[in-house]
Amino acid sequence: PEKIASIVAGVAEGCVQAGAALVGGETAEMPGFYPEQEYDLAGFTVGVVEKSKIIDNTKMQAGDAVIALPSSGVHSNGFSLVRKALFEQAGYTVETRLPELGDRTLGDVLLTPTKIYVKALMPLFEASLVHGVAHITGGGFIENVPRMLPEGLAARIELGSWPVPPIFDVIERAGSVDHMEMFNIFNMGIGMVVAVPADREDEVMNLLANAGEQGYRIGSVVARGSDGVELA
Fold first, then answer.
1. N or C: which end of the chain has fewer CB within 10 A?
2. Residue 40: CA count within 13 A, CB half-sphere
3. Is 96 exposed, middle or buried (0-12, 13-18, 19+ CB in 10 A)?
4. Which of 37-41, 51-55, 88-92 has the weakest average pLDDT?
5. Cα three-residue angle 134-171-40, rounded to 5 degrees
């Protein structure tokens, strides 16, 4: 019961951060399917938006600024490689403490809750500042940024323009993963990307700061060459 209460409390906190209502659910008991003390938890959110306010990227153009919002860590993606690299290849455990991770255990760092960006982004939407937005989820940085781009445009990203959390260096080293391949698997410190008018970048940054969120200018929208994302 204590574990279930903790799970429900976590879901409720996520709803508070997203401004969403927790409207119900069900518990399906399937004897013989799940072993004792094991469970599976799934959830989803539903939202509604006026058609006139949908972000459809039709206003995006070359020269727009690409602004990133930082992730809190791995964000629940790429864990197959995380387990293989850290626990199988490196022989670490969830209790392992590494100098680059400070006083925290590896398990604590890996289970850092995924950030929810609703309240940080809403002021940008309300001010009609967003030409495109991409949540950096499964598939990593490279595969997700093009989700916001219309045909004919690409995002030119300047490596080193944002801080990469040390957990990614730990994974890269432990798994002997090619550095550029890391961007195809993980968010690399970026949880959300928005394209905004370059001449309103300061306004965007101020709105993010007022919402308690750090924004980073990581690149620009450019005419597309061969790839949707160009890393420079």
1. N
2. 7
3. middle
4. 37-41
5. 65
